Amino acid sequence: MTDSAPSEKKLVRIDISSDTVCPWCFVGKKNLDKAIAASKDKYNFEIKWHPFQLSPDAPKEGIDKREYYRRKFGSRSEQMEARMIEVFRTVGLEYSLSGLTGNTMDSHRLIYFSQQQDLDKQHELVEELGLGYFTQRKYIGDHEFLLESAAKVGIEGAEEFLKNPNNGLKEVEDELKTYSGNITGVPYYVINGNHKLSGAQPPEVFLRAFQVATS
Fold first, then answer.
1. How far, in Å, CA of 73 to CA of 52, rounded?
2. Does position 4 have pLDDT exceeding 60, yes or no?
3. Which of 146, 135, 136 is nearest to 168 (CA)?
4. CA–CA separation, 97 and 79 (whole Å)
5. At CA 115, angle to CA 110 and CA 120, rounded to 5?
6. How far apart are CA 149 and CA 160, in angstroms?
7. Which residue in 184, 189, 194, 198 sits closest to 36, CA to CA?
């Protein structure tokens, strides 16, 4: 019996446009992670997160989530909450509409900062922010929560970076214009520069996309 040389893994680059208060973006991330775990013997992955703001005019000081969605969606807000509870359970999480929502710019500045240090840390930070905001009633604009999340994944210098509201602001605004400017909804994925997907796709759709993008 002869040992065959292991075949070289193909590179899958995934660019994701997302907002940190978008529940479908977080569900999409959980499904993407399942697809990555199921295919890591075939591929190496390079994942970059790009900013998108669903409500760029949302208040920085925060507003009650239920109240905000009631104002925005009217009577549909209760149906939407019930649907998200159901969808989050499919990825093993309990969705909560308790707590505050608001402007996401500071979270996007932190995500940008984390990318300068390590792409894996950036991916892990997006996970921590999503868990806190969607399941633990944390407010996405609260610097204490942002810094706790950064510390959990080993990002250094986050406090000093966030303290100055201009740090990373131009870079995030540039990306919002140039990268996410033509996107009408999130999550939005570009795989290996040309294969595009939108919405919280199931793991099997991502697996097929990896195959198509590397063939």
1. 20
2. no
3. 146
4. 12
5. 115
6. 15
7. 189
- Residue 61, both tokens: 């000081």
Residue 214 identity (one-letter amino acid): T
* Cα angle 19-145-60, degrees, rounded to a multiple of 5: 60
- C-alpha distance across the termini of the chain, in Å: 30
Token representation of residue 19: 């907002």
Q: Helices 143-152 and 105-117, interaxial angle, to 10°?
A: 20
Please name the residue that has the structure tokens 């990268």.
179
Q: Taking residues 174-202, report their average pLDDT.
A: 94
pLDDT 10s digits, 6-44: 568 999 999 999 999 999 999 999 999 999 999 999 999
DSSP string for the chain: -PPPPPPPPEEEEEEEEE-TT-HHHHHHHHHHHHHHHHHTTTEEEEEEEEE--S-TTS-TT-EEHHHHHHHHHTTHHHHHHHHHHHHHHHTT------SEE---HHHHHHHHHHHHH-HHHHHHHHHHHHHHHHHS---TT-HHHHHHHHHHTT--SHHHHHHSTTTTHHHHHHHHHHTSTT--SS-EEEETTTEEEES---HHHHHHHHHHHH-
Output the six-digit token pair for 119: 């792409």
**Cross-strand bridge partners of residue 189:** 16, 197
- Say what the pLDDT of residue 143 is: 98
Contact 65, 97 (CB under 8 A): yes
